[in-house]
Structure formats: structure tokens, C-alpha cells
Specification:
Number of domains: 1
Largest sheet: 6 strands, mixed
Helix content: 40-55%
Strand order of the largest sheet: 1-2-3-4-5-6
Distance between the termini: 96 Å
Shape: globular
Length: about 180
Amino acid sequence: MPTKPADSKSEAKVADRWWVETTPKNRPKPPLTQAPAGTSFFTVAHDFEQDRARERLTDNNLRLVQQANPPEGGWGYVQLAETTYPARELERIKQLINLPPYARGAIMDSGRTIRVLITGTPIGERILELALGEAPSFDCWVDGEWVREALFDDVNAAIKALHRFVVDYLSPEGIAHGRAIAAQA
């Protein structure tokens, strides 16, 4: 079968078609100038010391409670952002929590979310933290040691559970019970 000579018209038509691959398949790839996004995360987490971070968080909570300076049985407040949580909602949360006379509460206002820090006397020996946001959570520190964590489906469940945690960790009976258990260990 005779072959037809190459037609310059047909070559021009192929070159004009943007969807036709005309470059060689084995072309060298340009060097990677920037690392993928994931590596920047691991660079940030490199040499992360969880114990030191926990100590800093505990120290930070203590400083915030001291800054709020709540009276026994009362509340203090620290504004952490330019915007503030609605005042009416803050009052509602205070009423729902209803601090006992042996507890001191401090509200950390970050605008869209709040954290409730509750301690007793002496301030900071025991700190209960309730983060009220999209995923409410509870953490408890006793003598600077993290001893409890809980996650909740909604704010109402978190506040309801907080009542029990306040009694368990801050009431005179709860403190005595905790010390008795620690002495047996």
C-alpha cells in the first residue's frame, strides 16, 4: 500500500488543535520549590512536648482566674477578644451553673465562644474548665495534674454535668474523698 506524502496542511491542522498533545511525554518535571501543605504542619509539630504544653495551659488558666479575681460564690470576667459574647447569654449561663458558696467562677470571653473556669480556695489548687462552643468539653486539673476530660453533645448536657463535677472536685466532701483515695494508692 503506497504511503501518501505528508501534507503541510494536515500538519498545520494538528498544530492548531489545542487538545492534541504535541510535547514529548517524558519531559522533565520542574523542581518543587515549595513543600506540600502537610509538611508545614509537621514542621510546626516537630519537637512538640505535650507535657510542657499541658503545664503552660494549666499556668495560663491559673493566670486567667487570678486576673478575673472572682469572690467566693461569685463570678469574675476576662474579655479576650474585641468582640464579646452576648451579655444576656452570659447571665443565663451564670444562672444555669449556679455556683455554690465554696466555688469561684471566671468567664473567659473570646467573642464567639466562652470558657468557664471554676476553682475553690486556695485559688488554682483545683481548676475546672468548661469550654462552651460547637463541641463543649470539660477538663479538670488537681494540683497542676490533668485528671479528667469529658466531651458533650450540647451545651445543656455540659452544664448539667458540670454541676456534678463541681461537687466531686470542689466541695469539702469531694476534696476529702479525693484525698482519701489518693492516700490509699
